[in-house]
Amino acid sequence: MSLRWTRALLKISGEVLGGKEGPLDKGAFSFYAGEIARAREAGAKLSVVVGGGNVARGAALPFLPQTAGHTVGMLGTILNGVVLREFLLRAGVPGLLMSALPVPGVAEPVDPWRAKDALEAGSVVIFAAGTGDPYVTTDTAAVIRALSVDAQVVLKASKVPGIYDDDPLINPNAKLLPRLSHEEYLRRGLLVLDQAAVAIAKDHGLPIVVFQAEREGAVLTALLGETGSLIGGEG
Fold first, then answer.
1. Measured distance CA(49)–CA(42) in Å, rounded
2. Counted domains in the chain
3. Which of 40, 59, 161, 215 is deepest in the core (most CB within 10 A)?
């Protein structure tokens, strides 16, 4: 098995981590820990950025000032990071949790050099709390963290097979776009990832794969370059 990318950052949104068992869904965390373990066994060095929408989303807290709301959302990602680390450990995968809002004894401060050392040693590095700043999405954090650890690609876990030219949940005739450049994504004004994230990726030639993650083996298939929509990339 020859992976197209051997060093990747996986972005897992909060919406896929919640479920029938509540905001912190045991089944979802177990599933993604297994997916990460499988990719690691295939030779991938993986880091992960977790969202927090299953716990708290700043935009859904209109009774708070926006800065406070975004901060609550960032704290939610730390909860997800703690839980994901525990499920990785259960799967036999060492995990290092780093946070832009460090919590002594729980999550270390973000340190790209230590993160790269941990990846080389076989650990999965989990980045929480986004960039630590309000008004910045975890998609943008994912691109920044990917660049900081020399990842070759960002894999964005999604509930749909990839990027469409329209919302497939509203328009049944929406067409899947299997490949597009960063420039085309920005020109079309697509919203699967925020524009800032894609603009930064464009400036640094970092490809992004948007793929349907709920199918078993999907992370590994994305690393093989066999599924999802690819933004940028060679060939």
1. 20
2. 1
3. 40
**Integer Cα distance of 178 and 45 in angstroms:** 25
Q: Residue 91: which domain range?
A: 7-231
pLDDT in tens, the chain (235 residues): 699 999 999 999 988 898 878 899 999 999 999 999 999 999 999 999 999 988 887 777 889 999 999 999 999 999 999 999 999 999 999 999 999 999 999 999 999 999 999 999 999 999 999 999 999 999 999 999 999 999 999 999 998 899 999 888 888 899 999 999 999 999 999 989 999 999 999 999 999 999 999 999 999 999 999 999 999 986 4
DSSP label of 49: E
Residue 1 lies in a domain: no
Asked if residue 108 is part of any domain, the answer here is: yes
Question: What does the block give as tokens for 178?
Answer: 């299997």
Q: What share of the chain is helix, strand, coil (3-state, %, to 5)?
A: 40, 20, 40
Residue 36 is classified by DSSP as: H
- Structural tokens at position 143: 């691109």
Q: Is residue 56 part of a domain?
A: yes
Angle at 130 between CA 60 and CA 214, to 5 degrees: 75
Report which DSSP code applies to 48: E
- Residue 161: CB partners within 8 Å, gap ≥ 6? 176, 211, 212, 227, 228, 229
Identify any residues that bridge with 96 across adjacent strands, giving them in sequence order: 125
Is 194 part of any domain? Answer: yes
Residue 185, C-beta contacts closer than 8 angstroms, at least 6 positions apart: 163, 193, 198, 231
